[in-house]
Each structure stands twice: as structure tokens, then as C-alpha cells.
Amino acid sequence: MHPTGRIGIMAAMPEELQALLDVMPDETMVRRAGREFWVGHLHGRDVVAVLSRIGKVAAATTSTVLLTEFGVDQLLFTGVAGGLGDGVRVGDVVVADALMQHDMDASPLFPRFELPGLGLDALSPPGALTQQVRETVERVLSEVHLEALGLGQARVHQGLIISGDQFIHCAQACAGLRQALPQALAVEMEGAAVAQVCHDFQVPYAVVRTISDRADDDAHIDFPRFVSTVACHYSVAIIEALLRQMRP
Ligand code: ADE
């Protein structure tokens, strides 16, 4: 396929997608696979924005359609996640430099977490794009202050994000994940699936997650409040800053 220079933007939450559409001047909607894909421009770049839908299969379908039917040749995923790593607090942002499915377990046929057929358990987005995203997020976050929400200065972390088809909302589940994958910084429900699709199609991608909760007994309380007050504004600011910088 010829390079299109088109960037796919997958948003995990409707509030995030709406905030993005609010700053796109000319989007038109194309329906595929029961999803609404918004084709247009942002800061001079061709973009296609879409809601990922929740869970690994849904996110894999959405990303496959973006790559095969809309011909995007880079994919950015933004959303929220539960914080797992020490010092990864609500309001912080995690940029993935590796992604794993924490619920992949085909043992004893394959080692736990290994992706059958790939011989890998973790997938890594391209280093140069990850670095660019990290620097952009650092710049954006240095300009936001969340004291009004009782949150301190947000920090940027780079490392392993794990995905599975569960919303983790109890201390016991959280402790189990920390024990199995101690290097994991954050847990969510889509990133590793998107990574696998991009890996198969050899398309560069980045996954950025704002921490909305600590995946513990209070996760369901923190989550909705955080999405509307903080996360969607972060996502749009990060995407706008990235696209301005990527301008051809
Ligand atoms: N996304 C945001 N918070 C999450 C959590 N606690 N578990 C899974 N996905 C999430």
C-alpha cells in the first residue's frame, strides 16, 4: 500500500472523541463495521478519528478497519488506565514502551503470556515515535496544574502497559497483577490488542494512557469523574501538540 501520511486516532472514551471532533474543522462520518469513523484534518494532517470500543476484540476490529479500509499509516491511541506501578498516581500519564495481554494464557501449550504464533509476550511500539510522544506529553503536562482537583503535578512514566478484558477494581485483583507482572505500570483493556494488529501490519503506533484510578476498590468511583474533568482534555492537548509537531 502507498504511504498516505494519514494518522489514525483511536479514543477510548466518547468524551475524548467528542473533544477531538470539536477541534477538527471538517470531519465527515463514514460507517464501517458498526462504527463511526470521522475522516478529516487536524493541524494540517489527514486524520481519521474513531472510538476504539471497549475490550481487546473490539479494539482489534477498530484498528484493523483503520489500517485496511482507511489506509492510516500511523496509529495513536489515547485513553485512561488504572495505575499499578509504585508512584504511578491518578493524573499521571503513561506512555507505553511495551504492551502485554495479562489474560493471555495458553499454557501448557505455550508459556504464560506468550502470543501463540508470534513467540513473544510483549510487543514494543517503535522507539522513535515513543520518544517523540513522551517528549510531547512532558511538554503538555508541564503546562497543566491539577491542584483544584486535589491532585499534584502530573508526571510522565514510560514502560509496560498491560491489557485484559476486565475492569480491575479490587485490591486483590490488582495485587495478583502486580505479582504476575511486577514491571507493569498501568492496566487497561485495549492497548495490547491494538499493538498486535499494528505489529501484524507493520504500522507504527503509540499508546498513551492517563491514570484515572489505582485499579483498587475505589476504581469505579474515581473513573467517571476523572474522565470528564481531566482525561479528555489531556488527550486532546496531547494529540494536538503531537500533530503540530509532526506537520509535514
Ligand atoms: N481503564 C481505566 N481504569 C481501568 C482499570 N482499573 N482496569 C481496566 N481498565 C481501566
Walkthrough of the structure:
Strand 3 and strand 4 form a beta hairpin. The relative contact order is 0.22. A 5-stranded mixed barrel has the order 5-8-7-6-9, surrounded by 4 helices. It has 6 helices and 9 strands, in the order E-H-E-E-E-H-E-E-H-E-H-E-H-E-H. Helices cover 35% and strands 27% of the residues. It has a single domain (7-244), classed as 3-Layer(aba) Sandwich (Rossmann fold). By secondary structure, it is an alpha/beta fold. The radius of gyration is 17 Å and the shape is globular. The model has no long low-confidence stretch (mean pLDDT 92). Bound molecules: adenine. Adenine (ADE) is lined by residues 80-82, 167-169, 187-189, 212-213, 215, 219, 223. Adenine is lined by residues 80-82, 167-169, 187-189, 212-213, 215, 219, 223.
Descriptive labels:
single chain, 248 residues, alpha/beta, Rossmann fold, five-stranded mixed β-barrel, globular, binds adenine
Q: Report the span from N to C terminus.
A: 20 Å
CATH class (first level) name: Alpha Beta
How many alpha or pi helices? 6
Q: What would the CATH topology be?
A: Rossmann fold
**How would you spell out the order of helices and strands?**
EHEEEHEEHEHEHEH
The count of strands amounts to 9
Question: Which small molecules are bound?
Answer: adenine
Instruction: Indicate the mean pLDDT.
Output: 92
Query: Poorly predicted ranges (pLDDT <50, ≥5 residues)?
Result: none
Q: What do we call the CATH homologous superfamily?
A: Nucleoside phosphorylase domain
**Which range does the strand content fall in?**
25-35%
Named at the architecture level, the CATH assignment is: 3-Layer(aba) Sandwich
Largest sheet: 5 strands, mixed, barrel
> How many distinct folded domains?
1
So what's the overall shape? globular
Instruction: Label the structural class.
Output: alpha/beta
Compute the CA-based radius of gyration: 17 Å
Which strand order spans the largest sheet, edge to edge or round the barrel?
Answer: 5-8-7-6-9
Q: In percent, how helical is the residue content?
A: 25-40%
As an assembly, this protein is single chain
